[in-house]
Amino acid sequence: GAVVSQHPSRVICKSGTSVKIECRSLDFQATTMFWYRQFPKKSLMLMATSNEGSKATYEQGVEKDKFLINHASLTLSTLTVTSAHPEDSSFYICSARNTSGISYNEQFFGPGTRLTVL
Amino acid sequence: DAKTTQPPSMDCAEGRAANLPCNHSTISGNEYVYWYRQIHSQGPQYIIHGLKNNETNEMASLIITEDRKSSTLILPHATLRDTAVYYCIVRVEFGGTSYGKLTFGQGTILTVHP
User: Fold this and answer.
1) E strand spans, A1-118
2) Which residues of chain A does B107 touch, with a Cβ-Cβ cutoff of 8 Å?
3) Largest CA distance in chain B
4) pLDDT tens, B30-89?
5) Distance from CA of A11 to the nearest CA of B (A)
6) DSSP helix/strand/coil, B27
7) pLDDT higher than 70, residue A102
8) What is the rounded distance in angstroms from the CA atom of residue B68 to the CA atom of residue B99?
9) Cβ pair B34, B101 in contact under 8 A
């Protein structure tokens, strides 16, 4: 089946530093990827839609200068949390929409990245 | 905002069928019903989806009412490993600015007990 990976799985950083999270579709092409954030005991909240070769579309209330998204290839999107603060601590999850093959248009999720900002 | 309503929690005995309901009374003609589940501290896992016909795969069955305003996910023989949060989502399949987006509600916490 379709596999989406995220790296790192867990990161702890100091306040004020920037953290990059990678999302890769391992066995399919994904022109569109999505980034979600999930706080403890809460549901997933969509942050932005990442489109290969173009600018990301951010959901209302999400700061695009704070959460930089780059989707440079059909299999890789990155989310950079800039100048991280403790309130940015969360579980970040990406998903990739398959644009080829028998699972066309299905969305597959990565395992998530746990970010802790001290 | 999520367009679905689910009970916050349900219990099920191991080996029995788990029937998880979902209301989506404002569903549009170009929206499918999707079910995902999330086991603690993992990414959501796709289960099944459908438009208006009942669907079955190796994981579950999906029953959609004729008016499409509600659906039921059926896990035929629940196991302890099925304990998870189950999300029912309606998704635009084509056209419009919401194309492909998944908007998660609060889901149903299903606890399967021995």
Assistant:
1) 4-7, 10-13, 19-25, 32-38, 45-51, 57-58, 67-73, 76-81, 90-97, 107-109, 113-117
2) 43
3) 46
4) 889 999 999 988 999 999 999 998 999 999 999 999 999 999 999 999 999 999 999 999
5) 14
6) coil
7) no
8) 19
9) no
